[in-house]
Amino acid sequence: MSGLEGIALGALAAAIASGSLVGFTLGLVGGGGSILATPLLLYAVGVANPHVAIGTSALAVAASAYLALVGHARAGHVRWRCGLVFAVVGVLGALGGSSLGKAVDGQGLLFLFGLLMIVVGFLMLRPRRGPHVPEHPADLRTCAITAVTALGAGALSGFFGIGGGFLIVPALILATGMPMIGAVGTSLLAVGTFGLTTAVNYAASGLVDWPVAGLFIVGGLLGGQLGGRLAMRLAKQKATLQRIFAGLIFVVAAYVLWRSGQQFL
């Protein structure tokens, strides 16, 4: 597709609707945008090349994440110090990971992506042991732990061409002890930054479909606002967001594994 005129009406509608779903997911749980965006681009919009789908989704998710960040910031859900540390350090990992990911077979990359999603889904469902641990102060020690987790999450984010929210949210909770709604809001800063870094790397190789990315962003603007409002309503229900998050991951992981597995049969 070289422009909007090259996009069929059905694909255009699918791109906007898919972008709305991605934006809604980002606003609701701070992640899952890319694990939805890449399969939607491949199987709903009809992008043929997996690497182009990955590069395009990275750009669209970055924009949608920044848009969703605004609503969470206004509600006071963003821990800026930890979020900035995570975003800046994670970019280094994302650059290295995205360079490696471009060299891996597209279908093989998607299959590994599906396996990783299942692991993360189970980790999110695992109950916390012991009494509730209060949020850690944003001191030097917490920032150092945050930086280490950011480097690993950024590398995986870049390798799989994802914003990485489904990695960043649990990583932030682990490193800082912040509540789920705080991790959701804070993660959007890193999701946007990681996605933008990956998108720039892929764009340099001509692996971004700009018109489709634009349609995704338009849809993501509305979806992100709706998802953010629902997340705020569910914030007091401690396990609800985690369960929604994990359930979403399992559903998409199953579909990605099924579709990518067909290529090897």
Discrete helix count: 10
End-to-end gap:
29 Å
Question: Strand pairing plus helix content: what structural class?
Answer: mainly alpha
Low-confidence stretches: none
Number of strands: 0
Fraction of helical residues = over 70%
Secondary structure topology:
Blueprint lengths: L8 H21 L3 H13 L4 H25 L5 H22 L4 H20 L14 H21 L4 H12 L3 H24 L6 H25 L5 H23 L3
Helix pairs in contact: 1-2, 1-3, 1-8, 1-9, 2-3, 3-8, 3-9, 4-6, 4-8, 5-10, 6-7, 7-8
If you had to describe this structure to a student in words, what would you say it looks like?
This protein is an all-alpha fold. It has one domain (4-262). Helices cover 78% and strands 0% of the residues. It is built from ten helices and no strands. The chain has helices spanning 9-29, 33-45, 50-74, 80-101, 106-125, 140-160, 165-176, 180-203, 210-234, 240-262. α1 crosses α3, α1 (9-29) packs parallel to α9 (210-234) and α4 (80-101) runs parallel beside α6. The chain is globular and about 50 Å long. The two termini are 29 Å apart. The model has no long low-confidence stretch (mean pLDDT 79). Its main location: membrane. The chain crosses the membrane at residues 6-29, 41-66, 78-96, 108-125, 145-169, 181-204, 210-228, 240-258. It comes from Tistlia consotensis USBA 355. Belongs to the 4-toluene sulfonate uptake permease (TSUP) (TC 2.A.102) family.
